[in-house]
Write a structure and sequence with these properties.
alpha+beta, globular
Length: 187
């Protein structure tokens, strides 16, 4: 009889345990975005101080991808920045990213707030998307040529990125978005 009570108590207690907690993809995405932005922007500002826009553009071309790739490994997620107007063709949006960029663009044009969000993109992948808005520092490389983007700097950008489309922005424009892909089997 004690054995039956013990089994009953065991089953009751087993039923009371909480299932494993699902990852908070939105919070994780924000954490990864902040860490990646911090790493990129601090190095970018150092390069701007040391070599101006020319140094910063060369840094972005040579060192930004390895830095982001290393953070992708640390966080076990694919970290990207993409836009409807890319500087590097490797940053061209996927179809699901393009849909979200167009949605952000429409919301922005209508004066509505842009917020980070989570979106399933397959049975095994979940995307975190967050808008990137242009600030004054961005304009040194992404601004209006001959206005906020100096001609000499624009020439260097065109030399390194002949197909560049990532200029012509003003402060407050939607520049693009963060795209961070989580893989469910990494839970």
């Amino acid at each position: 009889m004690k054995y039956i009570h013990f089994i009953g108590l065991f089953l009751l207690l087993s039923a009371c345990t909480a299932p494993p907690e699902a990852p908070d993809y939105l919070a994780n995405g924000k954490t990864i975005q902040a860490a990646t932005f911090s790493a990129l922007s601090s190095k970018l500002q150092q390069e701007m101080a040391a070599g101006g826009v020319s140094g910063a553009v060369q840094y972005c071309r040579l060192a930004a991808y390895p830095l982001v790739d290393s953070l992708s490994k640390v966080y076990q997620a694919t970290i990207r920045r993409t836009s409807l107007k890319v500087r590097n063709p490797l940053d061209a949006p996927t179809e699901s990213e393009r849909v979200q960029l167009n949605s952000y663009q429409q919301l922005h044009q209508n004066g509505q707030p842009l917020e980070a969000l989570i979106q399933p993109i397959s049975e095994t992948e979940i995307a975190y998307y967050a808008p990137i808005l242009v600030n004054d520092l961005c304009l040194k490389c992404h601004g209006q040529p001959d206005e906020t983007l100096r001609a000499v700097d624009y020439a260097k950008i065109q030399e390194l990125y002949p197909g560049d489309k990532a200029t012509g922005y003003v402060a407050g424009d939607l520049r693009g978005m963060w795209s961070i892909t989580f893989f469910k089997d990494n839970e």
